[in-house]
Specification:
By secondary structure, the chain is α+β, with helices and mostly antiparallel strands. The chain folds into two domains: 32-93; 98-195. It is built from three helices and twelve strands; from the N terminus they run H-H-H-E-E-E-E-E-E-E-E-E-E-E-E. The strands form three sheets. Strands 1-2-3-4 form a four-stranded antiparallel β-sheet. A four-stranded antiparallel β-sheet has the order 5-6-7-8, with no helix packed on it. The radius of gyration is 24 Å and the shape is flat.
């Protein structure tokens, strides 16, 4: 094949591209100075694929990591900084795929909870994970439906509108769906009457 005229006419372009590439390689190899990133990379298990990394506080002493495990199942792991390193403090795994993680003060107590959504089959799953005063993590709400929608009530608290199939339709009728509303009430989520 004949040589490209562009290369033949502009040999300096080839040399310039090689110089730019050589200058960029050290930057690609350099590591971040963020200790959370360096530590989390060491904590990932064989076969894990990093999906999400998020600091849960401004100092980065608590970090949420979502991975796709070697088995193909998504997993949320919460690491906390202790004794000069990070230790795994909580693990959650729902559904077949991770969808989203948000930090929201669901009960207006000044502490943000983790609102995690997952997908599995034709369902969307919602999980709210809180941290108690002793530092332990616990699920304070978990539910699933065809569609999960987060809305806010008049007081500014988040509520979840979960639409699911009722299976009350007759033969050859279209599927019937109903929406249930869950609101924070007296220390937990409870089903609320529909408006």
């Amino acid at each position: 094949m004949p040589r490209s005229r562009c290369t033949a006419r502009h040999p300096l372009l080839v040399v310039a591209a090689a110089v730019v590439l050589a200058a960029c390689l050290p930057a690609c190899r350099s590591r971040s100075g963020d200790p959370a990133l360096l530590t989390v990379a060491r904590l990932l298990q064989k076969g894990d694929r990093l999906v999400l990394l998020r600091a849960l506080d401004p100092a980065g002493t608590r970090v949420a990591v979502v991975v796709s495990t070697a088995a193909g199942k998504p997993e949320l792991r919460i690491y906390e900084s202790r004794d000069g390193g990070y230790v795994q403090a909580h693990t959650a795994s729902q559904g077949d795929a991770f969808k989203n993680l948000a930090l929201i003060d669901v009960d207006l107590d000044g502490q943000e909870e983790l609102v995690v959504t997952w997908e599995g089959g034709h369902l969307e799953m919602i999980e709210v994970i809180a941290r108690d005063p002793g530092g332990a993590y616990k699920t304070i709400f978990q539910n699933a439906g065809r569609q999960v929608e987060a809305r806010y009530d008049a007081a500014g608290r988040i509520e979840f509108w979960i639409t699911s199939r009722t299976y009350e339709e007759g033969p050859r009728q279209s599927p019937d769906y109903e929406t249930d509303i869950y609101r924070w009430d007296k220390g937990g989520y409870a089903e609320a009457p529909r408006p």
